[in-house]
Design a protein that fits this description.
Radius of gyration: 18 Å
CATH architecture: Alpha-Beta Barrel
CATH topology: TIM Barrel
Order of helices and strands: EHHEHEHEHEHHEEHEHEH
Structural class: alpha/beta
Strand content: 5-15%
Largest sheet: 5 strands, parallel
Bound molecules: zinc ion
Length: 310
């Protein structure tokens, strides 16, 4: 029987394969490159990854949130998959218009344009009010928080108070800089590493508030409970954490569409092997995520992020 005091949510960042090239410094800058055509990108995160998540969630009886980079809708096949996601009853959140990793450092008017156009595009495409936002690379700034509220979002789910993840990310960004393949990604301020790990109200100017739903880390040890960490830990790792996960008062289980791609079976580009979890087969990843979700559905009350925000 699920415990009413233990809250959980499940969500998927649908990051196109082109974004992995940017984060690993394989195509240079943040945001769109000059030759990028959103109507012609490799859509397999959408056309293969997302339908597998729909199957997985249906099997576990889970309703989740899919964070969408709005420019991806320029692709015809992406629009068809998004319609399936909506028809299956899942929630859609904005993941910005073009996923610029430096969004938090852009001028206010550029931030406003990214968020306003994304929210409008997604509302038009889905017929849903788009209440929630997740920042590219999870990096916020005081100005970006103001912008999120200004365009009409009522909640955000970008904070990732996870020292092991943030330290590894900062080290990787430094390494890419030295090896002259600058990553598009930005390091997060250490105050966030140790920030609040359960939902709270972010206080904005003029007495306004934005509900923040942080990405899941375990109490005290602050180990991340996200798709990548569950896949890399394998079955033994999952068993080791399970007692802590079972008792955690807030699990915001964050996944990526690439988590259910098969590097070999889907014939993904060789360069994506810089992602260590790409070496794990789809069959194995599926089983690990299925066990995690089935357990979560037993121990926790599962709702969408939008439902928890209200
Ligand atoms: Zn992303």
């Amino acid at each position: 029987m699920a415990n009413q005091m233990l809250r959980a949510a499940v969500n998927v960042d649908v990051d196109g394969l082109y974004l992995y090239d940017r984060v690993h410094g394989l195509t240079g800058t943040s945001g769109n490159t000059s030759d990028f055509d959103p109507a012609a990108h490799d859509p397999r995160a959408w056309t293969l990854g997302v339908p597998r998540f729909l199957d997985l969630f249906a099997r576990c009886g889970v309703k989740g949130t899919f964070f969408v980079v709005a420019q991806d809708l320029a692709h015809r096949e992406v629009r068809a998959v998004l319609a399936d996601v909506v028809a299956a009853g899942h929630e859609i959140g904005s993941h910005s218009l073009t996923h610029p990793y430096n969004l938090s450092r852009l001028p206010a008017d550029a931030q406003l344009e990214e968020l306003r156009v994304s929210r409008q595009t997604l509302q038009d495409a889905t017929g849903q009010g788009i209440e929630g936002f997740r920042a590219p690379g999870y990096v916020l700034s005081p100005q970006l928080l103001e912008t999120i509220a200004k365009v009409g979002h009522t909640w955000d789910s970008s904070r990732f108070p996870c020292p092991p993840y943030q330290a590894a990310k900062a080290a990787a960004i430094g390494l890419y800089r030295v090896t002259k393949h600058p990553s598009g990604s930005l390091p997060e301020s250490p105050t966030v590493w140790f920030g609040k790990r359960t939902p709270y109200a972010e206080m904005l100017s003029g007495g306004k508030q934005l509900t923040e739903l942080p990405i899941g880390v375990l109490p005290t040890v602050r180990w991340p409970i996200i798709g990548t960490s569950v896949i890399m830990a394998g079955e033994l790792g999952r068993l080791a954490w399970q007692p802590l996960v079972d008792r955690s008062d807030w699990i915001n289980f964050e996944l990526h569409a690439i988590d259910l791609l098969d590097h070999v079976g889907d014939a993904l580009p060789e360069r994506l092997l810089v992602q260590p979890d790409q070496k794990v087969s789809l069959r194995r990843k599926w089983v690990l995520l299925l066990r995690m979700l089935e357990r979560l559905a037993q121990t926790h009350t599962l709702r969408t992020l939008g439902e928890w925000a209200t």
